[in-house]
Amino acid sequence: MLSMPGSAPEQPPTALPESESAAKRTVGDAFDAGFRTGASPAVLPGQRMRRVRIGSRKRAVTAAGGTQKEVGRASAPRRKNYRSRPPLREPRRPNGQFHRIVPRPAATKFRYMNKELIVNVNPTEISIALCEDRVLVELNKEQCQTGFAVGDIYLGKVRKIMPGLNAAFVNIGHEKDAFIHYLDLGPQFPSLQRLVNSHQPSKRGLRVETMKLDPSIDKQGKIGSYLEVGQTVMVQVAKEAISTKGPRLTADISLAGRNVVLVPFTSKVFLSQKIRSSEEKKRLKRIAASVLPPNFGVIIRTAAVEAKDEDIEHDIQTQIDRWRKTVQNIRRKPAPALLMGEMSRANTIIRDTLNDSFSQIAVDDEAMFNDIRNYVKAIDPEMTKIVKLYKGNVPIFDNFDISKQIKSLFAKYVSLRRGAYLIIERTEAMNVIDVNSGNRTKAEDNQEQTALDVNLAAAKEIARQLRLRDLGGIVIIDFIDLHKAQNRQTLYDEMVRLMATDKAKHTVLPLTKFGLMQITRQRVRPVAVEDVSDVCPTCNGTGKIEPTVLLDKKIENQISFLTQDRKQKYIHLVVSPYVATFLCKGLWSLRRRWQWRYKARIRITADQSVGIVDVHYRDRKGKDLIRK
User: Fold this and answer.
1) How confident is the model over 9-14, as a mean pLDDT?
2) Tens digit of pLDDT for each residue in 388-419?
3) Is the peptide bond before 201 cis (omega within 30 degrees of 0)?
4) Least confident of 130-144, 516-530, 603-617
5) How far is CA 216 from CA 188, 189, 199, in A?
6) Is 180 helix (H, G, I), strand (E, B) or coil?
7) Max alpha carbon distance in the chain (Å)?
8) What is the spatial order of strands in the sheet that 269-271 belongs to?
9) What is the pLDDT of residues 185-203, one digit of tens each?
10) pTM over cut 0.85
């Protein structure tokens, strides 16, 4: 049955004619009448419209329920709602088909990821785990009372000028001198240096608001023109000390808040590129211009879009007060000294990522709980309820199933769904990731589609592993070969979308003709979890040892060499307990046979620290007879 909506009360349905032409004519006339009267099909609340092709065979459509009993041809692609179109008759298609409007359930609302921040406090370090939908995506560790974190501002002294590198080494109190390049001095370094010199003891300090700024430095200049050995400079940590390298510094000082980043010695207002609305841009610029004093600029962050005017003004004023306290500390503390310390790592993560998607922030230390709670209350009072103090008997990371996920960081193989897996290798020059389909291809016929599905699943896991392991530098990904250019572009677009949530600076390049994708990613902090393993002393990292069945022949050859060529009459063998038992087993053991054959005294000592195939040959004084 076909129920046609119109302006008049609904009439009893009429049966469709049996002939094909009559059926098409009836449907067309009914639609034409409905469009002329301006009537719309019956639609339930929360539903949208889609158009369905009606063929020559019979079809019953229930407009109110939104269901259809298919007895004709397949439905056509969805189009826009007909209610926004003018009341014209739908043109006849070449195959003699028309369109019918039927309700379609509304699409589900976009769901944000459920985020959790788990903080574990130990006497020596603080571990912060960020989870998305119960999956660990970031792990940060902060050493207690170590300092030299990203964002800290120091008063340092220049130790050495490196003209060849156009850089200098600065002493800020770290065990290794920090590094600063000429391009990191910032365009207004002369003005900053004049401010620092004016706040030395017995000098009257200047204020940024009343200063006349010096001309910007030349980008092609030399660092020796602005720095000299023994000079006192104000610098900020841009990159923490990693491995054998000291911290990296910048003299382009900035103070970050939740909504803004304060930049002294400039009068410009910058906006985040993610802010698209022109009205919102005008509002934010107006707020900043009304609060900022002269010679102060600001970078407005994306979080300011949802913030109130007074919150943004308060954030700007807070950063200005922090700057003034930092400048006052120059007179009070001799170099090298910490002028202003960045907040704890946990509060930094909360400042940069806190939004409505967070479900809870769990802390197992009461002092840290109070610190985080007070900070959240200051920036977003409504989110204070999600900060919770964990008091369980089970360790907090075990309770939230994080310890197991941390252990997987050491794994070389990462499993994907349906048998696919990744192989992650870390080398000195780069990080290499290989994507393998496993045994999935055996059950699939369409190899191109299978390769695309595996690559898309691998891209999602790779984006997570890069954040979790904090892989920096060059990352080479060997995806499964895709022959269609459209599929290669789809994979590249998906990888760019997945990496968009990564806070670290990165660049993703399209696939090469060999199916390789190159990613460069910046790392500003040491790896949270280091793979502390040594090379096996027995196999020297090869994974292979000499065959044990030939070990007795090898020992006898060495004894023959020592007794006949070097004329040794005493040989002390230090071997593993298993080998010692084998050589001394029985009444007529191998040791006695060798003593009788080579006319020398042979002593065997078992040592558990010796490898299974290692043998040490020593004399009476314990000196090695054969050097390896």
Assistant:
1) 47
2) 998 888 889 888 888 888 877 777 888 888 78
3) no
4) 516-530
5) 5, 8, 22
6) strand
7) 123
8) 255-256, 260-264, 296-300, 269-271
9) 989 999 999 999 888 877 8
10) no
Beta strand pairing status for 98-105 and 67-69? unpaired
Name the one residue in this structure whose structure tokens are 């923490």: 240
- Quick check: helix, strand or coil at residue 7? coil
d(CA 51, CA 104): 9
Residue range 44-91, pLDDT digits in tens: 444 444 444 444 443 433 334 444 433 344 444 444 444 444 444 444
What angle (nearest 5°) sits at the alpha carbon of residue 219, between those of residues 215 and 223? 90
Burial (Cβ within 10 Å: 0-12, 13-18, ≥19) of residue 270: middle
- Distance (Å, whole) CA 411 – CA 424: 8
Confidence grade of residue 527 (pLDDT, cut at 50, 70, 90): low
**Cα→Cα distances 14→2, 17, 52, 534, Å:** 7, 9, 20, 84
Q: How far apart are CA 334 and CA 196, in angstroms?
A: 12
Distance CA 587, CA 567 (A): 27
Residues 6+ apart with CB under 8 A from 8: none
Q: Are 139 and 128 in contact (CB under 8 A)?
A: yes
Q: How far is CA 73 from CA 59, 111, 231, 590, in A?
A: 9, 35, 83, 89
Class of residue 557 by CB neighbours under 10 A (exposed 0-12, middle 13-18, buried 19+): exposed
The two counts, helices (H) then strands (E), for the chain are 13, 28
Can you state the percent helix, strand and coil of the chain, rounding each to 5?
A: 30, 25, 45
Q: How confident is the model at residue 458 (pLDDT cuts 50, 70, 90)?
A: very high
